[in-house]
Amino acid sequence: MGNSKFWNDLAGQVSAVQPAAETRSKKRMASSCHVVEIPDKVEAFILSLSTPPSILFCVAGGASGELGFFADLTPAQLHSCFEKNYFSAAFITHSLLRRWLKEPVGIQHQQRHIVFTASTAAFVAVPGYAAYTPTKAALRALADTIRQEVLMYSQDVRVHCSFPGTIFTDTFYEEQRQKPTLTKQIEGSDNPTDGMTAGAVSKSLFAGLSKDHYLITTDYQTWLLLNNMRGPSPPNNGILEWLVRLIASLVWPFCRLTFDRQTRKSRPRPLPLKE
Questions:
Q1: What secondary structure letter does DSSP report for 150?
Q2: Is 132 considered catalytic here?
Q3: pLDDT at 23 over 60
Q4: What's the average model confidence in pLDDT over 36-62?
Q5: Quick check: 42 and 91 in contact, CB under 8 A?
Q6: How far apart, in whole angstroms, are the C-alpha atoms of residue 220 and residue 218?
Q7: Among the options 136, 179, 211, 274, which is catalytic?
Q8: Residue 136 is a catalytic residue
Q9: Which residues, listed in sequence order, are joined to residue 68 by a DSSP beta bridge?
Q10: What percent of the chain has pLDDT over 70?
Q11: Using one digit for the tens of pLDDT, what is the confidence trace for 82-129?
Q12: Which of the following is catalytic: 86, 129, 132, 179?
């Protein structure tokens, strides 16, 4: 089970520094994402630490600059979106896990944690997210794989993956200016109440970690989608989530038909002819 007091204390520390962190994040995001996409630099950084951290939060990512319908995107946009959202998490996790396995913890029963940040987009396809959605689905698959692989080792490495929906940040409002109208209509991002602040998402995340949940959702809509798409991932509450999965299997076909109808009514602009 999760150490509730530990995670609650850590959540309080995060809340205390969050306003300052959000102020600095805009200046540091571009350079930080660029570094974590370079395996050699990531590994050099991990090896340079006198003591490896016991918890890794992978939170870099986003879709700004890579939104649009698949036929309208460039190969460079597809590539950069995967670097920003998948490789930024995969490379640092790979380097840190290798160091953990070489340097077992000295304290008996001490856990180490990897916390990935995926998205509601990992469970549902929305037109306009053709570059972004595959990266989050891949991140969920990576978490599934690592969760199982660490069972081979004697160390207690816990893997978690969170799936936040809309988070009201400066990046979100920047993305809103780039999204196709159809994307906004289907995901409901024009609704000012259909989203959460970064603080609320953080609180939900730590609540899930304190219960030692593997897959963590921050809203009921994503929880429903998760249980519709759970597959082989272990449940947090077997009986309850089996019932939710049953409900989702009945509800989702109607949602899909609605989304398909909206998409058919939308007419994208003609593609430019290649010179």
A1: G
A2: yes
A3: no
A4: 89
A5: yes
A6: 7
A7: 136
A8: yes
A9: 129
A10: 82
A11: 999 999 999 999 999 999 999 887 666 678 999 999 999 999 889 999
A12: 132
